[in-house]
């Protein structure tokens, strides 16, 4: 699992939504969890038939053609969110130059391209029990036959909405790796909920902020 990025960057005014949390692990390598702060996130709305050539020319990989899948080139990935909506995930701070390049390449095409990097953060969950933890929180069918590497889906997790992306396959060393993209305002809630879902495998409890009291619904 990738190490959590620094909570505070060279811009001292920018702070990760989960800067007050540190990476945690369950017992015997069952699961681990960390924030992946400051990843670039662009929302692209375009007719894929019209915009694919421009996207491929800039990123080097095509838009996903199948629902709820993704394509990937190095540290840049494109997630299928809807028939004409895609999320482009980049390395931290790489979205600015990519946004400019895409805007130029798509000039004349009917499209919308927005940088939402500061609106979301990502929680990375990995390990043999990561899938079991997620299954406790959502009605999505997360059986490996239905949801595998590269799959993407938006759903409710507990009482907040998030987009789930399986980055690495179950057969990968250390087990599957997932990323959940969640709004900044509910990131701490989801963090605590995931930790609670992993308690049976030794994941340490994470106390909610502001004296909130709640428990995982059984």
Automatic annotation (TrEMBL):
Q: Which domain of life is it from?
A: Bacteria
Q: Which SUPFAM superfamilies does the annotation name? A: Folate-binding domain
Q: Which InterPro entries match?
A: SoxG (IPR007375), TrmE/GcvT-like (IPR027266)
Fetch the Pfam families from UniProt: SoxG
Name it. Answer: Sarcosine oxidase subunit gamma
Q: Which lineage ranks, top first, belong to the organism behind this chain?
A: Bacteria, Pseudomonadati, Pseudomonadota, Alphaproteobacteria, Hyphomicrobiales
